[in-house]
Amino acid sequence: xxxxxxxxxxxxxxxxxxxxxxxxxxxxxxxxxxxxxxxxxxxxxxxxxxxxxxxxxxxxxxxxxxxxxxxxxxxxxxxxxxxxxxxxxxxxxxxxxxxxxxxxxxxxxxxxxxxxxxxxxxxxxxxxxxxxxxxxxxxxxxxxxxxxx
Length: 149
Description:
Layout: E1 2-4, H1 10-23, H2 30-42, E2 47-52, E3 60-71, E4 76-86, H3 95-110, E5 115-116, H4 124-132
Parallel strand pairs: 4-5
Antiparallel strand pairs: 1-2, 2-3, 3-4
Helix pairs in contact: 1-2
């Protein structure tokens, strides 16, 4: 089952988020991750969808964290599917696909025509899912990041 996360989900959601951070070679830090997610939820700064286990709806097995922003050229909202993660015990069961489909529904509700995401170049499993779901890898634009200290 896919639904919007609430602050009652924070413990399990943070555990999943922590696994996600470690997957991307960031340090595990439950307290910081908890505070970050709590702030996003309490301030309505993100939409987080959670997936629960079919046999135990109280057990969370995945999440999608989405930010809404705007595109000046499209003159419309765009959704940033910033984080997508499924627990290793629940992979290959269509959970990631369901989380993406829920994100598509959110885009439709908001009148957005664009969902954007980034993934690691070596994350070929995720890339396969994104291609399957209709995402097109951008070859026209370059992505740049600047770290400000």
